[in-house]
């Protein structure tokens, strides 16, 4: 990825990867503490153009990212990026558990 950043600019570091490897049916999970990260916006655009689902975790409301998202989760944490990122970690853990429960319900059986 460093050659993409060096040769094309860091704004394309994620979108170029998606353009090369993204396939319909895939899902992009993108995180932007500020809600304005240009490389995340470009990645979301690339994902949508290829038919990928887009889930965005943001720390501030972003009309542009929200419009590109199938699921948009804004976790406003004030002016501190670390608070936003702590909230994102919690959301990610919830998503992981929901996915686990979906694909491996036997691990969550009531009689365990």
Describe it.
It is a single chain. The protein has one domain: Rossmann fold, CATH 3.40.50. 48% of the residues lie in helices and 14% in strands. A 3-stranded parallel β-sheet has the order 1-2-3, sandwiched between helices. β1, α3 and β2 form a beta-alpha-beta unit. It is globular, with a radius of gyration of 16 Å.
Kindly summarize this structure in a few lines.
The protein is an alpha/beta fold and 112 residues long. 48% of the residues lie in helices and 14% in strands. The chain is globular, with a radius of gyration of 16 Å.
Side-by-side strand order of the widest sheet: 1-2-3
Structural class based on helices, strands and sheet pairing: alpha/beta
Q: What's the CATH superfamily, by name?
A: Glucose-6-phosphate isomerase like protein, domain 1
How would you sum up the global shape? globular
Mean pLDDT value: 91
Radius of gyration, rounded? 16 Å
Number of helical runs? 5
**β-sheet strand percentage:** 5-15%
Name some characteristics of this structure.
112 residues, Rossmann fold, 3-stranded parallel beta sheet, globular
Indicate the topology.
Blueprint: H1 2-7, H2 15-21, E1 27-32, H3 38-49, E2 53-58, H4 63-68, E3 71-74, H5 81-103
Parallel strand pairs: 1-2, 2-3
């Amino acid at each position: 990825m460093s050659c993409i950043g060096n040769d094309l600019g860091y704004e394309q570091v994620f979108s170029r990867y998606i353009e090369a490897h993204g396939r319909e049916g895939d899902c992009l999970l993108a995180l932007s503490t500020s809600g304005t990260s240009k490389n995340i916006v470009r990645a979301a655009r690339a994902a949508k153009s290829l038919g990928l689902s887009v889930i965005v975790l943001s720390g501030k409301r972003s009309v542009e990212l929200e419009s590109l998202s199938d699921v948009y989760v804004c976790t406003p944490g004030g002016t501190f990026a670390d608070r936003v990122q702590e909230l994102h970690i919690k959301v990610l853990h919830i998503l992981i558990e929901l996915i686990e429960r979906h694909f491996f319900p036997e691990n969550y059986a009531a009689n365990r």
